Amino acid sequence: MCRSIKQLRHADAAPTDQELHDAALQFVRKVSGYRVPSKRNQMAFEQAVNEIAETTRKLLQEVSVPVANKT
Fold first, then answer.
1. For residues 2 and 30, is the Cβ–Cβ distance under 8 A?
2. What is the biggest distance separating any 2 CA atoms in the chain, rounded to whole angstroms?
3. What is the per-residue pLDDT across 34-68, written as a single tens digit (0 to 9) for each?
């Protein structure tokens, strides 16, 4: 789908707010077909980005990360 969206789940660190925003923005751009929305659609576009970023944050907090085998 969106090859430029990078994996945000890592064992060593949570994603930054900027990383979450950037991934959500890329997703919304791809789904909507707009790189930059019109003024009329700006509010809906920004709301979608914010909601997706927050949902992604919640998902990553709930998903368990496998512990590396150190043997």
1. yes
2. 57
3. 999 999 999 999 999 999 999 999 998 888 666 65
